[in-house]
Amino acid sequence: MKRNLLVMVLILALIAAFASCALADEAQPQYGGHFVWSQPYEVGTFDPHAITDDGSTYLAWQVYEPLVSTDPYFNTIPALATSWEHPDKETYIFHLRHGAYWQDGNELWAEGEAPEVTAEDVVYSFKRALDPDNVLVVRSMVSLIDKVEALDKYTVRIHLSTPDILILKRGIPQVYIIPEELVENKLLMKHPIGSGPFEFVSYSPGEQVVFKKNEDYWMPVYLDGMTMRIIPEKQVAVMALEAGDIDYIAQVSPSAVPRLKEEGFLMVPRATGAYRYLAFNVKNLPWGNVKMREAIAHAINRDELIKVVFSEVPDLAKPAYQHESPGWSTYDPAMKKLPFWSYDMEKAKALLEEEGWVDNNGDGIRDKNGQKLSLEILTPSADPNREKIGVILTTKFKKELGIDATVISLEWGTYLDRTQVLPPKNDVQAYILGGYSNPKGLYSLFSSKTWGPGGNSAFYSNPNVDTLMESALTSSSSAEWVKKWKEAQVLIYKDLPHIPLYFEYSQGADKPTIHGCNLHHYGFNDTYRQVWMEQK
Asked: CATH number for the domain including 466?
């Protein structure tokens, strides 16, 4: 009976995972076709354990697979593991899928000669991710794992030093399983080879990545192949869709949504809101002073920002007063009532004056001890929404608060180089960004253990917050975790390392002849294995 119940749970999870964006469409999937789609980000790395950007994530999700994954609502679903057990709070036992093979016809294995993915491959991948000498980003997500062992060819046991209630939602799903031969033969950064639904063919920097179907994948893959076009300008991507040059856009410019709908393209909505924020490097003065950041918080009118930036599609954004997205169990409506979220320009001016910043020489800019009050805000050039917000905020700060505020738009790689370098070398004052919109995102963004590439580029540190979040992660129940997570969030925002701006409900767009696209909780397709094209 228990075995039958487990099978039924797995079947339901798979159905949920592969649900199409057109659920009412009962047409039978068709095989064939080359799918061309676009996203705005360059690929930063081929190493799936070192990802810090969306472009690399898009690539990794097609070529590699983790033990388990999550659906758009953060429910854990099977991947290379078909089932798992949790005998105690520190132990997880995973049962691997039989018949999952490494991709062949490449520099590692000739056609038909690739071996099966086994427990030893899983052990190798986790040990590589956890090795501090490798300095891999993913290590911060699974740092509580202290032992990984193969019990037999298809069984893996993972043991934690202390419990982590979110490890199956954010942690284990981020450790892609890779063959040791790929690293030993120094091919990892040249030719990604995994067990995923698509095989890597070629990469043209700044232009595209080409994939072909993995003929030996463990479930049906309908497409013959696909091309991921890199189109930084979202309006250019829209024109490419309209011209028929591409079949799908993973991230549509909000201003184009009404036009695309009118032209008959299908919109693919995101499941949950993505956190967007203004962050400060709290180690650099004068903005390292919480009173200065509070002044900025009072000078931001979220409703006004959304009205201007999302004027044609206001439903794509909602004001944010916290990291946790509406609909999550950890979302706390009381956060909106924190006193420093009120829009109050007079209060903002008073706080600056209390800190000694006044316009002594009448030039319209506040100064103190002969130093002008300046604020440089960085934004990534790949996202026009964040660029617009940067312009709106700096214009307002300069005109109404007397701050010499400027916005600097940077290419993604340069942006990361500037924001992630550790103190005291980091000279950034503030930046606009989004991301880490997942159940463990609060920890990634605000733990003192995740500075820099780990997520905390505000370099925020509060021992009480660290203790509370770590205690939450070791909770014995979801209710206890939710309670402590909310308490930690209140402490964090009282310190104002971030000023939440809005939750973005991004959309994709595809042709009516494309089926099976969905937007994951991250805002893009997790994999295109379920996508199919109507054949002429």
From this structure: 3.10.105.10
Put simply, whether the predicted model's pTM sits higher than 0.85 gets the answer no
What is the tally of structural domains in the chain? 2
Cβ(442)–Cβ(473) below 8 Å: no
Run of H or E including 478: helix 478-495
Residues 300-352 pLDDT 10s = 999 999 999 988 787 789 999 999 998 888 999 999 999 999 999 999 999 99
Check whether residue 231 and residue 367 sit in a common domain: no
Those residues whose C-beta lies under 8 Å from the C-beta of residue 318, and which sit 6 or more positions away, are 273, 306, 326, 502, 503, 505
Distance, in Å, from the CA atom of 160 to the CA atom of 91, rounded to the nearest integer, reads 6
* pLDDT tens per residue across span 69-102: 988 778 899 999 999 999 999 999 999 999 999 9
Domain-embedded: residue 523: no
Provide the CATH number for the domain around residue 157.
3.40.190.10
CB 387 within 8 A of CB 381: yes
6 domain residue, yes or no: no
Cα 149 from Cα 127, distance rounded (Å): 10
Residues 189 and 304 reside in one and the same domain: no
Asked, for residue 58, whether it belongs to a domain, the answer is yes
In terms of phi and psi (left: phi > 0; alpha: psi -120 to 50; beta: otherwise), the region of 239 is: alpha
**CA angle at residue 356 from 353 to 361, to 5 degrees?**
90
